[in-house]
Amino acid sequence: MPDTTPPPLDSAQVAHLASLARIALTADEIEKLTGELGVIIESIAKVSEVATPDVPATSHPIPLSNVFRPDVPGATLTVEQALSGAPERDGDRFKVSAILGEEQ
Amino acid sequence: MSGDSLISLSASVLAERLHSGELSSVEVTQAHLDRIAEVDGDIHAFLHVSADALKTAAEVDGARRLGAKLSPLAGVPVAIKDVLCTQDMPSTAGSRILEGWIPPYDATVVAKLRKARLIPLGKTNMDEFAMGSSTEHSAFGPTHNPWDLERIPGGSGGGSAAAVAAFEAPLALGSDTGGSIRQPAAVTGTVGMKPTYGGVSRYGAIALASSLDQVGPVTRTVLDAALLHDVIGGHDEHDSTSLTDAWPSFADAARAGAASGSLTGVRVGVVKELGGEGFQAGVSARFAEALDLMASAGAEIVEVSAPSFRYAIAAYYLILPAEASSNLAKFDSVRFGLRVNPPGGGTVEDVMAATREVGFGPEVKRRIILGTYALSAGYYDAYYGSAQKVRTLIQRDFDSAFSRADVLVSPAAPTTAFKLGEKLEDPLAMYLNDVTTIPANLAGVPGMGLPMGLAPEDGLPTGIQIMAPAHEDARIYTVGATLEALLEQSWGRTLISQAPGHPSMPLPDERAARLEGGTR
Amino acid sequence: MTSTADLMDFDKALELFEPVLGFEVHVELNTKTKMFSPAPNPAAPGADASEPNTMVTPVCLGLPGSLPVVNEQAIRFSISLGLALGCEIAPTSRFARKNYFYPDLAKNYQISQYDEPIAHDGLVEVELANGKTFRIEIERAHMEEDAGKLTHVGGATGRIQGADYSLVDYNRAGVPLVEIVTKMITGAEHDAPELAKAYVSAIRDIVVALGISEARMERGNLRCDANISLSPRGSGELGTRTETKNVNSLRSVERAIRYEIQRQAAILAAGGAIIQETRHWHEDSGTTSAGRPKSDADDYRYFPEPDLLPVEPSRALIEELRSALPEPPAVRRRRLKESWGFTDLEFQDVLNSGLLVEVESTVAAGASPAQARKWWTGEIARLANVAAVDPSSLVSPADVAALVALVESGELTDRLARQVLEGVIAGEGSPSEVVEKRGLKVVSDDGALIAAIDEALASQPDVLEKIRDGKVQAAGAVIGAVMKAMHGQADAARVRELVLERATTP
């Protein structure tokens, strides 16, 4: 099995991960996390020692398949229930700040 | 009966006295509310106490007076871990990001509690999003261990365990992703059961790691756990991973175990890898005594080896953060929860990032970043993919061990309760608390934490873990109830009766009543 | 803004470059409920999703603690679609989470399928107007959920840029989708734009025949993302591709491909480079504009959805669904041509206009094939062209059939029927309602006609003589005068009859 151990984590990578995860980390937090995660990753990277190609992956602890629901409408939330937790609303819709995206 | 002695009764005894009319639910509920008012300032087991408890209790009393057919635990109060959605109480999962959020729906287990007419007392404290082993990661301050207020009550379900240990509630619900029911039970001298994955619905349980999470009972006796499990268990069409098994009565299983007093013919497997180095001396000593006791009651003790268990923590700390990083993405300030607008406004992207920076605590951020890393392109195979393979190996180890033993045992936690703050700055040391409990979550098998005595060196509770093959939860209740009875006979009292601040429980009565119940 | 981009002449572009195409078509299934929640499905027939956030459950809103459960009917529809696309149905397929933050995505991950789709390796045959047939290879068809709907408020255009804030409605969140992904298509050459339209039209015909989607492009039931790149002729190298989104009519598919070829060719010929990005099609201007650049930052962190279990359809289920498939499009086309009695030219006319389904539905609703064809490929297509929309978005087959019936019963003339059609399109109601409201009925009261004829004859006294002398065509002048007097609301044939009658009776 080829060595697939990724290179050690650096702070630029942590900053990138934080942006993927939408967390506005401060520079101090990034620095601290880089150290902490480095230690943790070093410790957990040993999973690859025994994860040989002949071993299948298990994603569910109890194997089941074909769990379906009949196509029958059920109870819905009222509009008020749906919006009850909204930090901000406009009429019956959720309100968010301007979106940076698609058509720039 | 005075409130003090009332709160020391087990749920099964309370249930009987409610049933016979000797006690009213209002009395019982009031006694527990009084107890909460008296001690929760010190313990901080509750994040919210229900304003409707007495009203609900009065309704149950009324129904009983009218001769309604009520379920066995009707009228008995229950505390609910704050990870569970309740449409009449805030549900925060211990996080600032959900502070004050009242869901528009009940978790299935909560709906089942209501249907069985238990009395929801309030919501219990927990590590934020159940990430932790000490309840110190709650955004609303830690819970204190009733045995020693300077010490942790375990986690993440420290609130539920402490509430039960401090007699603030006879019953509580917990959730267990890597030991959050069993480890707190061990360090607070209580009983906690993690059912087979899928045995209890996860619908309405705020997800940490979907493939590991399981809701279960937190109580002071094995029978109480079984009674509560009977209420919350069973298939739920809202949870695809919910099992369709026809479950036996766990209460019957527990009563049978308590009554038999014998373990003849039971093969008890001791997992070599879940003991020895890193385990506190007093924990190991009590564990050895418990094994002797089981042997003397007829059990066949066999040593089993599970070599892959040494990779369990590593696999767990990849799978959990990976799933959690995705499950926690929904906390984005759009539909519910906190919103933090960065200075000068900003785009929705900036608002989300600012909200998550302020709303999540350090441990949550740590695990989200770790999980994001583990799933990133290029790293998936080495980390998440490998961890899922380790999971297969651990399942194989369980299969092999269960071919030689009916139940597996280990200490439920490597140490007794440690001091608040002791491991807060060392995440890796904190993660090692779950070494004994994690394998059961990875494999989906049921496990129970049960008191096995006080450690001689610090006088604090220790717990034993009993595990059975998937779907065989009843076996744990039978063996657990037998062991509990044997231990209590050997001590001449219950473990919890030795807790400081214990409201002078009249032990003989209660024990007798419980055993009586078992022979019926 | 790139809408003012230089464009190279299409033929010139094709001289220099070879177009390489690829399509991702999203089909909204018309199940009663959503993909993972028992909320009513806004893409179901007759559903009304106009009130925001009225068709939601905790699952659609991604509320903490909520969990998805798969809709069995969506699985059956997806398998049927896979089979109709000639795909293999996977013995085991799996849902995966595609993680990215966007406010219309309630959980900030989309439940989709990744490395284990339900159907893969299919083939769709597409016929062009010139009789050429293309075999388009399908890479995969996978199930996923739709996102909610964003409305951008403020700014000049209602578009995302310059908006002050946005509003989110989650009614559409969780609508079941099947995404059909083609393999790379080469060799289309000059036919590329037409091929694109024909391909999407073929997919539409398939899902309509299966009855699994309402397939209204203008409503987003069927959405096409078109990938296109240009390879310098003879270079053998693949060019950088763009992905054009928001193409919501058959007509636009064709235009968008043509536009992108011309735009990319101009850039490449000038020594520029194509940026790998999504581009947004603008129906009004017929142009595309740059969207989000595709980059390494797009890391969706796919992993198997832990809240859902593998889908393992039995052989028996697959065979049951296979045996229930409608006939393949080519067979169907042959059958329809024969049963309608159309000439090659007439049938090709229907195919090329992409109106096979409409004509078929109109015939099914009672119209004669000839009339159905005449209306769809004639007046309706003309009006659609004027309005720059697909004909099917203007009027329903049932209304067209009703219109034809009114003509055939003599209640409307062709001319009046065209006015009625305009009323129907304007939303004034069904054809009979429009007839009523606009008072367009043919005057069939002979008394009124005779009075008008008499008046006309009185002003042209020589006409009767001419008719009696056998010069029947002289009647034309009177008929014209009568039709004018009746404001066109008379049956000219009847007027002629009455005029001749009048001439022959003393």
What does this structure look like?
The complex is a heterotrimer of chains A (104), B (520) and C (506). Chain A is mostly helical. Chain A contains four helices and three strands; from the N terminus they run H-H-H-E-H-E-E. Chain A has a domain of 55 residues: Histone, subunit A (Orthogonal Bundle), CATH 1.10.20. Chain A is flat. The termini of chain A are far apart. Chain B has 520 residues and is α/β, with parallel strands linked by helices. Chain B has an eleven-stranded mixed sheet with strand order 1-3-2-4-6-5-10-11-9-7-8, with helices on both faces. In chain B, helix 8 runs antiparallel to helix 17. Chain B is globular, with a radius of gyration of 22 Å. Chain C is α+β, with helices and mostly antiparallel strands and 506 residues long. Chain C has three domains: 316 residues, no CATH class; 112 residues, no CATH class; 59 residues, Arc Repressor Mutant, subunit A (Orthogonal Bundle). The mean pLDDT of chain C is 90. Chains B and C meet through helix 11 and helix 12 of B and loops of C. Chain A: GO terms for molecular function: asparaginyl-tRNA synthase (glutamine-hydrolyzing) activity; ATP binding; glutaminyl-tRNA synthase (glutamine-hydrolyzing) activity; transferase activity. Chain A: Keywords: ATP-binding, Ligase, Nucleotide-binding, Protein biosynthesis, Transferase. Chain A: InterPro entries: Asp/Glu-ADT_sf_sub_c (IPR036113), GatC (IPR003837).
User: Given the C-alpha coordinates, what overall shape of chain A results?
Assistant: flat
Read across the widest sheet of chain C, the strand sequence of neighbours is 3-6-7-10-1-11-12-13-14
| CATH level 3 topology of the domain at 1-55 in chain A | Histone, subunit A
CATH class of the domain at 1-55 in chain A: Mainly Alpha
> Which CATH architecture of the domain at 1-55 in chain A?
Orthogonal Bundle
Percent range for helical residues of chain A? 25-40%
Q: What kind of oligomer do you see?
A: heterotrimer
- The number of domains of chain C: 3
Q: What is the count of DSSP helices of chain A, taking H or I runs of 4+ residues?
A: 4
CA-based shape of chain C: elongated
Main beta sheet strand tally, sense and closure of chain A: 2 strands, antiparallel
Question: Unreliable runs of chain C, pLDDT <50, ≥5 residues?
Answer: none
Average pLDDT over all residues of chain A: 90
Helix proportion range of chain C: 25-40%
Keywords (chain B): ATP-binding, Ligase, Nucleotide-binding, Protein biosynthesis, Transferase
Subunit structure (chain B): Heterotrimer of A, B and C subunits.
Pfam families (chain B): Amidase
Region (Disordered) (chain B): 497-520
